[in-house]
Design goal:
The protein is α+β, with helices and mostly antiparallel strands. The chain has helices spanning 2-13, 17-21, 39-53, 116-119, 188-199, 210-220, 239-252, 283-295, and strands at 26-30, 36-38, 58-63, 70-71, 80-88, 99-107, 128-134, 138-143, 149-154, 159-164, 175-177, 203-204, 223-226, 256-258, 278-281. An eight-stranded mixed β-sheet has the order 4-3-5-6-7-8-9-10, with helices on both faces. Strands 12-11-13-15-14 form a five-stranded mixed β-sheet, with helices on both faces. The protein has a two-stranded antiparallel ribbon with strand order 1-2. Strand 7 (128-134) and strand 8 form a beta hairpin. The N and C termini lie far apart (42 Å).
Length: 298
C-alpha cells in the first residue's frame, strides 16, 4: 500500500510540469508543529490519508500535519497503525533539494475500538518502516524486520524495481551530518564529538532533509545527528514518524540509533508528536557519542 501511495504521487506530479509549478510555495496555513505548510505538504498528506483509509488494512493514522490521530471508518478498519511524515524536508521544496516521505507501521495490540494509546508504542514493536526519497531518481527503502531493501522507481513501467537488496551500513564512516549553525547551543558531549571529527578531517555533509541525509548515511556510513540544544532541550525531530522509522532501518542495516543516553527504539512515547534528540548511523561512530555522554555524565 505504501508503495502504491508513492507511485500514485509520482504519477500525479509527473503529469505536467505546469501543474507541478502551481504546487510550489506556501499554502497559507501553519501545522501543529508551528511550521508553515507548503502546497505540496497538503497534497502529500491528503494523498496518504485517502489511500491508507481506503486500503481496508489500517485502523489509525498519525500524520505530522494533523494534531490528533485519524481514526479510519469502522467498516474500513484493519489491524495496522501507520505513522507518517508525508513530505519530509518540505522547507526545501522551492529550491529543488531532495525531499521524501517517512513511515512506520505498528500492529494494533488491544481489543475494542482503536484509541490514541494504540499508537503510543515503542519502536521495538514496529512491524515495518521505510522512506521514499524524491531526488535524481525515486527510491523506496523498506524493512519488515528482516534486513533492508531498496527499490528504484522505473518510470518506463511505473513500478518499483529491487535495486539494493540487503543494504548494510559500514561499521565506521568518514562523514558526519548535522546543522552546525546551532554549535553555540550544543551540550559538551556533542561539542567535543564534532571537534574530534574536525581534528580527524572527517567530511561534513548536511542537506537539511532527513530522508536525504539518512539515505546518504546508510549508503556511505558515518553519523547523522539532530541533538538537543539549549533552545530545544527535548530535541526537534518527532519520535513516531521520523526517529523510530529511521532508527529501525539503521539498526536493520547493522547500525545504531540513540538519544545519546538510550536506544531510540526503546523510548515509550506519551504523545503522538513527541520529540527526541537523535544520533544514528555506523555503529562505531554512534558508540563514540554514547561514550561521550557517559563521560560528561549527561
Amino acid at each position: 500500500m505504501y508503495l502504491q501511495c508513492c507511485e500514485e504521487g509520482w504519477h500525479r506530479c509527473s503529469v505536467s510540469p505546469f501543474l507541478v509549478s502551481l504546487l510550489y510555495g506556501l499554502a497559507g496555513d501553519v501545522n501543529v508543529q508551528g511550521e508553515e505548510v507548503k502546497k505540496l505538504d497538503v497534497l502529500a498528506n491528503d494523498l496518504f490519508i485517502n489511500m491508507l483509509t481506503s486500503s481496508y488494512t489500517t485502523c489509525l493514522l498519525v500524520s505530522e500535519e494533523n494534531k490528533t490521530v485519524i481514526e479510519v471508518e469502522k467498516e474500513r478498519q484493519g489491524k495496522y497503525i501507520v505513522c507518517f511524515d508525508p513530505l519530509d524536508g518540505s522547507s526545501n521544496i522551492d529550491c529543488l533539494v531532495s525531499i521524501g516521505s517517512i513511515f512506520s507501521i505498528y500492529r494494533k495490540s488491544s481489543d475494542g475500538d482503536p484509541t490514541v494509546n494504540d499508537a503510543l508504542q515503542p519502536g521495538n514493536t514496529l512491524v515495518a518502516a521505510g522512506y521514499a526519497l524524491y531526488g535524481s531518481a525515486t527510491m523506496m527503502v523498506i524493512s519488515t524486520g528482516d534486513g533492508v531493501n531498496g527499490f528504484m522507481l522505473d518510470p518506463s513501467i511505473g513500478e518499483f524495481v529491487l535495486t539494493d537488496p540487503g543494504m548494510k551500513i559500514k561499521e565506521k564512516g568518514k562523514i558526519y551530518s548535522l546543522n552546525e549553525g546551532y554549535a553555540n547551543l550544543w551540550d559538551p558531549a556533542v561539542a567535543e564529538y564534532v571537534l574530534g571529527k574536525k581534528a580527524k578531517k572527517a567530511g561534513a555533509r548536511y542537506i537539511g532533509s532527513m530522508v536525504a541525509d539518512v539515505h546518504r548515511t546508510i549508503k556511505y556510513g558515518g553519523i547523522f545527528m539532530y541533538p538537543a540544544t539549549a533552545d530545544s532541550p527535548k530535541g526537534k525531530l518527532r519520535l513516531l514518524y521520523e526517529c523510530n522509522p529511521m532508527a529501525f532501518l539503521v539498526e536493520q542495516a547493522g547500525g545504531k540509533a540513540t538519544t545519546g543516553k538510550m536506544r531510540i527504539l526503546d523510548i515509550v512515547p506519551t504523545d503522538i508528536h513527541q520529540r527526541t534528540p537523535i544520533f544514528l548511523g555506523s555503529a562505531g561512530d554512534v558508540q563514540e557519542i554514547i561514550d561521550l555522554y557517559t563521560k560528561h555524565n549527561l
